[in-house]
Structure formats: structure tokens, C-alpha cells
């Protein structure tokens, strides 16, 4: 009877060890995905900042172009390589 209890405990112990190993692997995968998510969020933030800077530069350049067109001595006639 004692031998049967020991065998049952050993089976349960084996099952618990597998369960802990599976949980450990899941936790590791979760942490890896979480790190990747944080990295992607950081990249997104950087790209949004770059986009805003490019939009501001684009607006400034379009204003300079309009100003250059208005002050030009030859209205409506621009060199195709420049404008």
C-alpha cells in the first residue's frame, strides 16, 4: 500500500513538473512578446515624430514655393527642373 502511494506521488510529481515547465515556457514567450511590443511602440513613436517633422518641413517648403511664385518677375512661367 505504501508503495502504491509512493508511485501515485511520483506520477503527480511528474505531472506537476511538466505543468511548471509548460507555465515557465508560456511566461518566457509572454515576456518576449511584451518586449517586442514595447520595442514596436517605441518605433511607432519615433516614426510619428518623424512624420510630424516631415509634415512641418513640407508645409514650410510649400509656403516658400508660394512666396517665390508670387514674387517672381515672370508669373506662371517656371523652369520645369526647379518648380
TrEMBL record:
Domain of life: Eukaryota
Keyword entries, A-Z: Coiled coil
Residue stretches in coiled coil: 30-57
Protein name as catalogued: Uncharacterized protein
Organism of derivation: Quercus lobata (Valley oak)
